[in-house]
Amino acid sequence: MNNKVYFTPGPSELYPTVPQHMQEAMAQKIGTISHRSKQFQEIYAGAESGLRKLLQLPDEYEVFFVASATEVWERAIQNNVQRESFHLVNGSFSKRFYETAKELGREAQLHEVPFGQGFDVESINVPETAELVALIQNETSSGACLPVEDINRFREKASDDALIYVDAVSSLPYPAFDYTLVDSVYFSVQKCFGLPAGLGVWLVNDRCMAKARALQESGLSIGSYHTLPTLLEKALVSQTVETPNVLNIYLLGKVLEDMNRKGVATIRQETEAKAAQIYTFLEQSTVFSPAVENPKHRSKTTIVANTSIPASEVNSHLAKYDLQVGSGYGKYKDSQIRIANFPAHSMEQVERLLEKLRELEN
Amino acid sequence: MNNKVYFTPGPSELYPTVPQHMQEAMAQKIGTISHRSKQFQEIYAGAESGLRKLLQLPDEYEVFFVASATEVWERAIQNNVQRESFHLVNGSFSKRFYETAKELGREAQLHEVPFGQGFDVESINVPETAELVALIQNETSSGACLPVEDINRFREKASDDALIYVDAVSSLPYPAFDYTLVDSVYFSVQKCFGLPAGLGVWLVNDRCMAKARALQESGLSIGSYHTLPTLLEKALVSQTVETPNVLNIYLLGKVLEDMNRKGVATIRQETEAKAAQIYTFLEQSTVFSPAVENPKHRSKTTIVANTSIPASEVNSHLAKYDLQVGSGYGKYKDSQIRIANFPAHSMEQVERLLEKLRELEN
């Protein structure tokens, strides 16, 4: 039995109801049923409608299930960019989206600030020729976030035809997006939704759909089984093109029922309350300090701290109490720790974590 | 509680040990651990070595975990075909691979025989210019198979540089391939490995790797996160590029331990013994008959029968006994049934199914 509580930034703690839902899934043989059955279509439709409700998603958005957020990067470029994309880069994951565009032969432009910094949106010029503007609402590697009010300013900055993409991999459902001011948002289920990994969710509006169709009609290859038109064709009958991760779609639907019962407002309030506790601790600590300087740019869901004690030693200490935080990303492996503050993490667990981190100051 | 036994051709019955492995996975919090942790690397390495042992895979082969066999079709074309591929087509899935090549802008050639027929390999001419030869060992839609001895003749038929790809989605580990005479084999875990869906396995040899590198060096885009070189870079440290379906990789490793304990020879013998029972029944039945005429081309793992009673009525009858077969594929939905004969299906379950199908003859 593993009793450890994981504050790793994803995969992370499962939402508390997941073990019970998994037991029910096994009893109902959800791993066995056909992905072309009526039973699966109901599971799919339930997950989709649960998500639409939680996120208050406008009708002009489609919900697509793919394998990972990493896949979304590739599909976004294939389906929505003929020549040029523009990327805000301030960490490893936003950089990876930029690199994906280049690997796929596109002209990718970037506006880059150092790892751990947020963006001064006022100063950013979006090229007139950019067809896709890649924003990163929450950079999981550095703990920097882009506030929703800043995201909302890009519609005016970009050309009329540009599609605004928002990486919310490790923050949704926390940010209350204005979906009418962006065109696509995507996330992974192993972060704030507290599920096992192996499913990415890609939300696109009718503008993304139209662009994909236009590229396809122009003779450009926009991919094969996961083009936007192909995804939509199956989504309209609550199915996927390939045999998907049925079990995870089932679990997502169940967790969304739980989350909707609780209400997204409560989830957001709890996220903020726990984040406040963590940041207050970091600011007062003699060992740790918030890695992101500007409080406005500090993520509420993936909180990164500089540490004067190597991250590996921090985790050795925490292990005695069955606790674990994430180590820093890449070259910050030992000089930073990352603390996930997801809906699965309770205030009690956060308080216990901070209590044990505090012991390192003695 | 769902007590039905599913003979659907995938997703299908879970391998009998899966519920117990899933319980253990939840107790060990496998859905929570990081995909960059040592614990995950051990899980990955265990699944890979279990597969190498079961399939007696030569060292020059790499094992890659992707999202689905559908994904393999796309990646195979991107990584291994500059201009032209050649496809044996005799059903919906082999046709789909051919169409994938065309969607990705390649010149795809095909040798097509009617749905439900096998191939007369003697008569097939492989174009000298084909860079990839797509063989389908087991056509899940029609129940036609390509015997291993026929597969082995394509190395001589194709040009020296051509890569021979084998679709074994719904048959491995049953076919005892000569891996030195082919270059890539792929399958999905929700068929004969008895796992929940959401994971494809792609086996490639060094010739496939070399071709991908040559295409990349020539300046062709071979994709982004799932190019063969990128997959290999991570596989060498027992990791994946993206956050994968960790739970399924864990379950695959556990089922492979169980299968290796039993031994692949026993699994193959049992598969043949159950298939013999099913085909004997079909040949003697007044309602059903084998859909594939030539016994040599009849699949041992996905057995398709013509039915004079609509498939939906067959399943209505079977439902009374908590049994279900697959309906026919596509336009054969009601005129055929498909019976999965996977390692998860016991002889006792097969006998019970045949007993209840026999009642329809009265």
Automatic annotation (TrEMBL), chains A, B:
It catalyses: O-phospho-L-serine + 2-oxoglutarate = 3-phosphooxypyruvate + L-glutamate; 4-(phosphooxy)-L-threonine + 2-oxoglutarate = (R)-3-hydroxy-2-oxo-4-phosphooxybutanoate + L-glutamate. One of its GO terms (molecular function) is alanine-glyoxylate transaminase activity. Pathway: Amino-acid biosynthesis; L-serine biosynthesis; L-serine from 3-phospho-D-glycerate: step 2/3. Residues 7-328 form the Aminotransferase class V domain. GO terms for biological process: glycine biosynthetic process, by transamination of glyoxylate; L-serine biosynthetic process; pyridoxine biosynthetic process. Transmembrane segments: none annotated. The keyword Mitochondrion does not apply. Its EC number is 2.6.1.52. It comes from the Bacteria. Keywords: Amino-acid biosynthesis, Aminotransferase, Cytoplasm, Pyridoxal phosphate, Pyridoxine biosynthesis, Serine biosynthesis, Transferase. Its cofactor is pyridoxal 5'-phosphate. PANTHER family: ALANINE--GLYOXYLATE AMINOTRANSFERASE, AMINOTRANSFERASE CLASS V. Belongs to the class-V pyridoxal-phosphate-dependent aminotransferase family. SerC subfamily. This is phosphoserine transaminase.
